[in-house]
Amino acid sequence: MRKYLFGTGLLGAVTGGVTLLRALRNDAPFTWRVAIAWLSWAISLTLAIGAIVDTRNAGRGHIAPPDSPIAGHEEKILQKRLKNQSR
Fold first, then answer.
1. Whole-angstrom Cα distance, residue 10 to residue 60?
2. What local confidence, expressed as pLDDT, does residue 1 receive?
3. CB-count exposure of residue 58 (10 Å: 0-12, 13-18, 19+)
4. Which residues contact 86 (CB under 8 A, 6 or more apart)?
5. How far is 6 from 25, CA to CA, in rounded Å?
6. First CA to last CA distance, the chain
7. How many CB atoms lie within 10 A of CB 54?
8. How many CB atoms lie within 10 A of CB 59?
9. What pLDDT does 3 receive?
10. What is the DSSP code string of 24-43?
11. Contact in structure between 43 and 24 (CB atoms under 8 Å)
């Protein structure tokens, strides 16, 4: 669980969200640039969560979709998980 929560993608998305929330408190007007920043943050968070789901599924023996960053490495992830469980 630790490897999922402290992944760089998720930490980056959370940090970006905190930055956007701080900007809201400064009474700045809501412009199209702010809307695009929130949209970008939502996309980053979605991609980070998708990578976590793909990694977890690969560790359980499922095949990752071809557009996944771990596509082709499922066997290696599964072997690593099985090795850690045997300890």
1. 21
2. 57
3. buried
4. none
5. 27
6. 17
7. 21
8. 19
9. 66
10. HTTT----HHHHHHHHHHHH
11. no
